[in-house]
Amino acid sequence: MIPFSSIFRVRALLVLGCLGLFSSLAVGSELIPVPEFTNHDVPITRQSVPDSPMWEWLHVALLVIALSIASYMAIVSRSRKGLFVLAVASLLWFGFVRGGCICAIGAVQNVTLGMFDSSYAIPWTVIAIFVLPLVFTLFFGRTFCAAVCPLGAIQEVVAIRPVRVPSWLDHSLGLVPYIYLGLAILYAATGTAFIICRYDPFVAMFRMSGNINMLIFGGSILLLGVFIGRPYCRYLCPYGAILGVLSKGSKWHGRIAPETCIQCHLCENSCPYGAIATPTRPIPKTERVKARGRLAKSLLSVPVLILCGVLVGMLLGTPLSKLDTDVRLAERIIQEDAGEVEGMTDASEAFRNTGQSTSLLIEHAVDRRERFGWLGMVLGGWVGLVIGVKLVMLAVRRRRVDYEPDRARCVSCARCYWYCPGEHVRQGLVGDVSQLVSIETKGAPR
Question: pTM of the entire structure?
Fold first, then answer.
């Protein structure tokens, strides 16, 4: 086995640095008092000069270069060290220097709003940042996740002692990114909010400032990431859900064994993301009928789940609309006029000072709530479809004779290359796999 104590020490130092940064930000935000001014003239607000478009296109060019390098290292050179160094570089540039914005994950909302609102002008650079990782994924798998995405990179750095998540829990939590994606599209399409950016766990760290709650949330994700590999990427990231679907049909993808798999199980044990598909046994004839029955039931359940989701979604209109500022303002105005609450909020007081018609505000809020009503039905149908497809995929049993990466879940991090004896032979580090492992034939592969 190749010693890699050096890279372990580097990762440990980076973990301590990230956690130290988080703690200093959190403590600083509580300890630094807000100064009170008396007889102070408020300065005139000056608009900051926007960055030159050249810098935005430079950002796009660097993204292309990083994606190209990551794809080469994941598929051709198969270099774990190279991918790790690139991940650190991406974390520094796309994360801390660029402040984590704009990223391909958040660009989902910009593209959605541009599709539903003709008055919204989306920059071409944002479209490029959104599309480029998708194109590279279609050809090379999730190499964007491997070492380019700053959110994935910061979690890759802290993944020191990851444990395996039970399969049933992993598959269940794996549905959350698709539901999150549906919610993000819904709120972006209505112009309500960009919830992906609002609840980004690491952007406050990248900018070294932010809401204390988000700093705590990000720090908790990092602490969890020490023991569970990439928790945000696997169980929250909506863009990762899109990349996972595209990666299943990627033209090229990294292979675990470059020549012949020797069934040593090392790649399976080394993967912290549960992305290694194990060899399967032939299904006995007595079980084939049952297997076909399970598959038929799963297929029949898809339209039923979609219908159930639509029906449940009919009830989601009001809860979903609570995030809309106009709906909340109209509800507050109605409560104040009815005497149900005392005093006014800043928003309601500002609205009353404008002299606008309350009836027009309420009418607009009713229209917004109705729109959320049918969008809630669409969201419910989407959730039903996601659950149904997952059941069908679990019911399908694919024949495999070797250990293979699950293309949808594999983030091309190349950890398995470190442990694969065949990879060590290919690199010329050893002459024969027998120098690394002792192979015992114990019947058919499990």
Answer: 0.84
Amino acid present at 103: C
Cα angle 228-231-237, degrees, rounded to a multiple of 5: 165
Q: What is the DSSP letter of 54?
A: H
Q: What tokens does 84 get?
A: 């790790």
- pLDDT tens-digit series, residues 419-434: 888 777 777 777 666 6
Answer yes or no: are the C-beta atoms of 160 and 17 closer than 8 Å.
no
CA atoms within 13 A on the CB side of 324: 27
DSSP letter for each residue of 198-259: HT-SSHHHHTT---HHHHHHHHHHHHHHTTSS-HHHHHT-HHHHHHHHHHTT-S----S-SS
pLDDT at 278: 86
Let me know: does 437 contact 283? Beta carbons within 8 Å: no
Listing DSSP states for 160-182 in one string gives SS--PPPHHHHHHHTTHHHHHHH
- 240, pLDDT greater than 70: yes
Spatial contact of 269 and 171, defined as CB atoms under 8 Å apart = no
